[in-house]
């Protein structure tokens, strides 16, 4: 397989991917990324998150002209007004979009053409935890079920192996499956 | 404190909140919620999540007329085209919007008026994990730092106590801080 700077597979610039890996192998400090977000409460269950700059690859990123905004709210049954998906639904989005990137980038690196990729997710949650009605019930998802459908130029075994690799290296799957330390402080 | 069906505090219908808690105490099965999402890959790092119905309070929710859509992509330095925030940035949004709901709902229940509430979040991540360059480096955030600013009709001690309670009962904080089982299967 030959790669040139023009080559893209699955919409991924494979040469840039190889260069990125090489650059980090030469200078491990380039691998440090710090992502940021600011959230402002707007009333009731409604809040808005603004996402723009981040630190990564040794510098502050300046690629985004305007911030992304994400709305969060609850549905009426949870006392909100449906101004956006709720927080645990946003977790499902984060997980799916992470696995999509991992799947497609690693497929590109392995020379596998992906034509279609789709994820269905479901998370089950018991409201006793959030409402403080039971200390035995965790507030978050007890379990997340994900199914995916892929149309790719690969054997079933290659797809399974790729999927295993993607699961081992997915940032959001790791965040969900394993403990992350969170520090909360008031300004 | 008297509550009527008309009473709202912080934009939260306090009477409905009390009713919801009472209904779940009477019938614990009402506390089971199943949230869903579907994600479709669109090319490169870009995918789109659609979020609409869910199961909760004993029935399929029908309050949303049109699905919410959330875009996910990577910035150019991570081989994407900035069609949306990336997956780990979406995790920060999910965490903040969850804490906002928890803070404001519980403040309303306690009779505390919240005027302003804002969260700043930062998550640090080492790309060695995602790129498969080190099995010692976790793919996800090593650490998330959150600071908040609140203007509310409460003492500093009341705010701290409320914040502790919110942290104990936040679904997304629980999902991030503690392990969640995720099942992945191909269709």
From TrEMBL, chains A, B:
Q: Which InterPro entries has this protein been placed in? A: KH_dom-like_a/b, OsmC/Ohr_fam, OsmC/Ohr_hydroprdx_reductase, OsmC/Ohrsf
What is the superkingdom listed in this entry's lineage? Bacteria
- List the SUPFAM superfamilies: OsmC-like
Which PANTHER family does this one have? HYDROPEROXIDE REDUCTASE
User: Mind telling me what this protein is named?
Assistant: OsmC family peroxiredoxin
**Lineage start:** Bacteria, Bacillati, Actinomycetota, Actinomycetes, Jiangellales
């Amino acid at each position: 397989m030959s790669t040139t700077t023009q080559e893209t597979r699955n919409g991924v610039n494979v040469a840039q991917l190889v260069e990125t890996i090489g650059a980090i192998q030469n200078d491990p400090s380039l691998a440090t990324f710090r992502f940021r977000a600011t959230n402002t409460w707007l009333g009731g269950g409604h809040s808005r998150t603004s996402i723009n700059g981040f630190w990564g690859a040794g510098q502050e990123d300046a690629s985004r002209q305007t911030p992304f905004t994400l709305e969060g709210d609850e549905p009426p049954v949870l006392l909100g007004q449906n101004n956006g998906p709720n927080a645990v639904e946003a977790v499902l989005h984060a997980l799916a979009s992470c696995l999509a990137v991992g799947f497609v980038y690693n497929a590109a690196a392995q020379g596998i053409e992906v034509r279609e990729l789709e994820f269905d997710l479901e998370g089950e949650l018991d409201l006793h935890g959030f409402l403080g009605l039971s200390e035995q019930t965790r507030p978050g998802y007890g379990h997340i079920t994900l199914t995916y459908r892929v149309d790719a130029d690969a054997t079933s075994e290659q797809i399974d192996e790729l999927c295993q690799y993607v699961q081992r290296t997915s940032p959001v799957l790791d965040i969900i499956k394993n403990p992350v330390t969170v520090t909360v402080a008031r300004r």
